[in-house]
Amino acid sequence: MSNVPDDLVYTQEHEYVARTDDSNVVRVGITDYAQGELGDVVFVRLPKPGDRFNAHQSFGEIEAVKAVSELYSPLAGEVVEINNALDSDSGIVNRDPYGDGWMVKLRLSNPAELKDLLTPKAYRSHIGE
Amino acid sequence: MTSVLGRKLSTPTLDVLHPSHFAYRHIGPRRSDVGEMLELLGYESLESLIDTVVPEEIRLRRPLALPPGRSEREVLQALRGIAGMNRVFRSYIGMGYAGCFTPQVIQRNVLENPGWYTAYTPYQAEIAQGRLEALLNYQTMVSDLTGLEIANASLLDEATAAAEAMHLSQAVHPGADAPIYLVDDRCHPQTIAVVQTRAEARGIRVQVADPDTFGFKPGVIGALVQYPATDGQVRDFRTLCQKAHEAKALVTAATDLLSLTLLVPPGEWGADVAVGNSQRFGVPMGYGGPHAAFFATRDEYKRFLPGRIIGVSKDRDGKPALRMALQTREQHIRRDKATSNVCTAQVLLAVMASMYAVYHGPSGLRRIAERVHTRTVILANALRRLRYKLVHEVFFDTICVEVENWALPRLLDAARARNINLRQISSTRLSVALDETVTLGDVADLITIFSLNEALPFMLDDIGVKRDRAIPRALARTTSFMEHPVFHRHHSETEMLRYIKRLEARDLSLTSAMIPLGSCTMKLNATTEMMPVSWREFNRLHPFAPRDQAAGYQLLFSQLEYQLAEITGFAAVSLQPNAGSQGEYAGLLVIRAFHRSRGEGHRTTCLIPQSAHGTNPASAVMAGMQVVPVKSDARGNIDVADLRAKAAAHRDSLAALMITYPSTHGVFEASVREICRIVHDHGGQVYMDGANMNAQVGLCRPGDIGADVCHLNLHKTFCIPHGGGGPGMGPIGVAAHLVPFLPGHPIVDLDHPAACGTISAAPWGSAAILPISWAYIALMGYDGLTEATQIAILNANYVARRLSEHYPLLYSGRNGLIAHECIIDTRPFKASAGVDVEDIAKRIIDYGFHPPTVSFPVPGTLMIEPTESESKEELDRFCDALIAIREEIREVEEGRAARDNNLLTNAPHTLEQVISDSWDRPYPRERAAYPTRAVREHKVWPTVGRIDSAYGDRNLVCSCPPVEAYG
Question: Which listed residue, of A93, B125, B277, B356, carries a Cα 20 to 30 Å from B209's Cα?
Fold first, then answer.
């Protein structure tokens, strides 16, 4: 069983979205289930702060030893911060996907879209757990 | 029942299994074994088995129109005759190919040594540390000589390496709507042609011009320059690099490794990529190949590096261990998003080049370069005294001479009379390229030629006196290179021999055990087939030598083309593509050219089954097509309903379907004719991936089934050895309507009026290894070839049947039979025992075998292809090992062994681990290392434990680590 925290929302592509102190800014990463499926993450390619993305648009790439996967923006918005720590130690994504292994912070173009994302319950059923 | 020459063939009286027939040597099972194996499968004869496996509607019901098999002595004699028709001139043509001396210790112990040439690509790194080290040396050498941080483990040839550099330039700075690539007009012409072909398909505009006129306008993604130029001039590109970088464009230098021992390396003058041919480091010219091309770039572009990269990681005990790094860049993972379709390297040739560097060391290489340069200077001085005008004064080993119109033919005649080839650049220019084999006597011959029989105004004996350099200080190398101890320790022959043997002993090759890799066809590479590779009449020819000097090669090519066309049922064959991936790309370009010739250039949709090898979609994209995947059904076959729907939906843009046959799942799909018909009905062409041709030869033919193009992996079905990960050859066969579009060549007219472009640097790819396939076909004959296919199918079904009681088998055709390979499903053991496919593969190493193909085409499974060459005894030994491993899994399942500390999870076991005084595993050492009697007699020990690949990819090191790291 993978860890699906109750205080987050999710996408079909296995990203999670966490709220921050600023109600217009969210923190995005990949779920515990996703890191488990990928195996040892060896590289994460992230966008630059200031880049803008639509929902479902690819904003980066995550590489494991024998798999590579695109990262999709869960919602429309502008990148305000990226997790530079992943550059030197991408293994954080495996060890702490919901904490230090986050990837980008997005300033949402339309925070109302948050309600379109999957609830923890819906995500659990999406991954068959 | 197959009828050959009026005789009915049946198992007990098989002529081909008579000791006088070469097939008796090539095929593993003995006559009596065949009967036993058929009995296990429940068939009375080989024919009845084959009749059940291969659908009747596609069977070839006549013998192949080829001669019967001939003895090894006869075939060698015939090859001697063919070789004798080639004439070996001294070729001073240059253009990326140079004469060289292969140190004999390397010739005999690497090139002619099955311990090196029969190994597979080093996917199983624990039993491949030897060639991985040799390749790491290669990368270190390339990186040091070019002055760039990271190099790959080689590419197919210089021209395709240059094309890869163009793709890298685009990938690094994507976004240009109408990308432009600038190409130096003094690059080698074959390089320009290959780059233009690649660019055109991808919508990149190539502008060929003098680099002094290059303008880096918006849209320019990069520039390619030749250093030294094809006519020999060494130019300073520092200003060009500045201009390029200001415009965010990349500069690639096509260069020559030997010259870089004396010249400022490209990395130091600002180039972002360096490519070239390492051939002159001890690899014969071979009328075009095989050779190892190199590719080096800056660290920041490492994720865009094409091809294989060897990296340093560590094993479970923390010991340094090598393995292929950053595999996620490659086409088998990225499919249509890959920036390159290249699958292979030229490992055997890269190993030779790296060994040449180890043997000579940096000072030895510099000495060779100085000698070549000095002789070029001597020649230049003499020609000046003969009142010739040199076109340029700064050069390394090639000079370009201005001659009068009337004199040029006379000079060429005079050269020919002395068995010397010069290069004619234009009607008034000749060039002469020297190499390490050139003696002062050769230089004297050249001077005599240029004297046109006039008395020399100086004494030939005096020409060796003047030793000015023709390299100005600004272009002279000042930095050191190849300082690693490996390049300093093995200069005596004793040390060199032991180093080569030490590395060889770390690797598992066909000399030790079967390599049952599904889809890779690791069959016998017979000694007789390999002999001609070493003959000077085959390996000393320059690829652009006048054709009349290569009459033997021309005869061999035309015969081989005919044989392959007969075997595939096609009208013609092109021998140019240098690898399976190149064959795919070439075949799709032919299809594209065909559609365009009919005004249907809009046909660019390529249907590809989901089960296809990742190279297929990568090749389609390279050929300018868009990929539309087609579903596979539960049995692994193409979902015909989905195909019909997709073909109909894309009827206006359908270009091609790519299909592998038998399928990647190892099954003869009964619906293949219908599949071809659907594609044709919707205006598309059928491209057949010939990776599994080993199951078709003599039984059915792609051309009869309905394919329009098919590539052949000569290194699979037709016995060219895998070389530890290259060379390969991927010729294509085409139906009559596609013949005009076969690849052309800018130097050698191949008579294809509407050629789709140029695929490889050399007109006939890696010509020097084509005698291997020719010999195999001659030795086997129509009867032996067909028999080989039948036994390959028998062997695979025998293994499948023996394993079926112990492992679930995936996919089969009629009556539960398979084609030439089987897939065993190991996924259930993850839940039942915590054991995954990797654990099983690594445990197979402890049993002395190379593991089968892991996780292709289905993740979590093993695909086994025994080939016809393995004996029943070896098949049984292998099956026994897998069955014993099943029992080891059962111990875990039943709680008799710990889930996280058992024979499988700890595999493979090294000698060091099992003799260690601190052995603390919950099972005996004997079980770990000697699980069967057979391995007590002989086994290749893994020299490192299970490798931590993630560590190496996170901490990328791709050149020789300091010696202290080995503690």
Answer: B277
In chain B, which residue's Cα lies nearest the Cα of A40? B950
Average pLDDT over residues B448-465: 81
What residue in A sits closest to B303 (Cα-Cα)? A43
Q: How far apart are CA B57 and CA B136, in angstroms?
A: 50
Q: Are A114 and A76 in contact (CB under 8 A)?
A: no
| Dihedral in degrees, nearest 10, Cα atoms B280, B284, B289, B295 | -20
Sorting pLDDT into bands at 50, 70 and 90, what band is B328?
confident
| Cβ atoms of B285 and B543 closer than 8 Å | yes
CB contact under 8 A, A90 and B954: yes
**Nearest Cβ partner for A66 among B303, B333, B954:** B333
* B6's tokens: 């009026």
What is the structure's pLDDT at A1?
Answer: 76
pTM over 0.80: yes
Q: Does A63 sit within 8 Å of B328, measured CB to CB?
A: yes
Task: For residues B131-151, give the mean pLDDT.
Answer: 98
Q: Could you report the predicted ipTM of this complex, rounded to two decimals?
A: 0.78
pLDDT bin (cut points 50, 70, 90) of residue B5 is: very low
Is A42 in contact with B953 (Cβ distance < 8 A)? yes
Span B355-404, pLDDT tens digits: 999 999 999 999 999 999 999 999 999 999 999 999 999 999 999 999 99
Query: Does the beta-carbon distance from A39 to B949 stay under 8 Å?
Result: no
What contacts B550, CB < 8 A, 6 or more positions away?
B86, B87, B287, B541
Q: What are phi and psi of B688, to 5 degrees?
A: -105, 125
CB atoms within 10 A of CB B611: 22
Cα–Cα distance measured from residue B811 to residue B822, given in angstroms and rounded to the nearest whole number: 8
Tokens, residue B330:
């490659």
Instruction: Provide the percentage of residues in chain B whose pLDDT is more than 70.
Output: 97
Beta-bridged to residue B13, according to DSSP, are none
- Chain B residue closest in CA terms to A87: B954
Q: H-type helices in B202-321, by residue range?
A: 238-246, 266-269
Q: In chain B, whose CA is at the least distance from the CA of A43?
A: B954
Q: Is B188 exposed, middle or buried (0-12, 13-18, 19+ CB in 10 A)?
A: buried
Nearest to B327 among A39, A66, A89 (CB): A66
Chain A nearest CA to B332, separation (Å):
10
Q: Is the pLDDT of residue B339 over 80?
A: no
Do B328 and A39 count as a contact with CB atoms less than 8 A apart? Answer: no
In sequence order, the 6+-apart residues with CB closer than 8 A to the CB of B282 are B100, B101, B102, B103, B106, B352, B353, B355, B356, B359
Verify cis geometry, omega within 30 degrees of 0, for the bond prior to B662: yes
Nearest chain A Cα distance for residue B339, angstroms: 14
pLDDT surpassing 90 at residue A102: yes
Give the 3-state secondary structure of residue B657.
Answer: strand
Sheet hosting strand A9-10, strand order edge to edge = A9-10, A15-19, A25-30, A104-108, A77-82, A52-53
Is the dihedral angle over the CA atoms B506, B510, B512, B517 positive or is it negative? positive
Q: Evaluate the CA torsion angle B719, B724, B726, B732 in order and state its sign.
A: positive
Percent of chain B at pLDDT exceeding 90: 88
Binding-site residues on chain B for chain A (CB distance < 8 A): 303, 327-328, 333-334, 855, 949-950, 953-954
- Give B303→chain A minimum CA distance, Å: 10
Q: What's residue B248's pLDDT?
A: 95
Q: What is the pLDDT of residues B494-537, one digit of tens each?
A: 999 999 999 999 999 999 999 999 989 999 999 999 999 999 99
The Cα B367–Cα B365 span in angstroms is: 5
Q: Supply the mean pLDDT for chain A.
A: 93
